[in-house]
Predict the structure.
Amino acid sequence: MKVALVIGHKLFSGGAVSYNGISEFEYNEELVGMVANNLVDSNVEPLIFHRKLYRDLPKELNTKNPDLIISFHRNAFNTKATGSEVLYYYKSNTGRHTAATLLNAIHECSGLVNHGVKAKSAEDRGGYLLRYTHAPCVILEPFFIDNPLDFSIGVDFKEDLALAISDAIIKLAK
């Protein structure tokens, strides 16, 4: 099984930022590397993607023909919102199952509020990626980066989170 691990955002457009200046991109780049390393001795081949232009991302991913696509992000809202969710394309039963498996693993690891899996259409934020990739695709939002407690859990348990995500991917590959 080939799984595309997409690092959300870019170095110079890093996405949401924590209270101490860590961007989604910085956090995700390290986490994706950890997940990929955890998959080395499994039957899963990780393909790491750095996003260039968002509109070109589905086409780029499709050329590599992965079996599964996971895009790594973090939520941000008002410094008080907390919890985890995973997004999937509303017409994809495999996407829904994948999202639920990953969210359960994230929730067990972090203990944060479980906001559930969220179905998205092509018009919704993130929906373009979810709709126009050939393989089932999900977007991980494991915590709110602008909430200091969520962020500290994300940092303190990063290795555990990487292992939980890796184990869920291996489970999905079976």
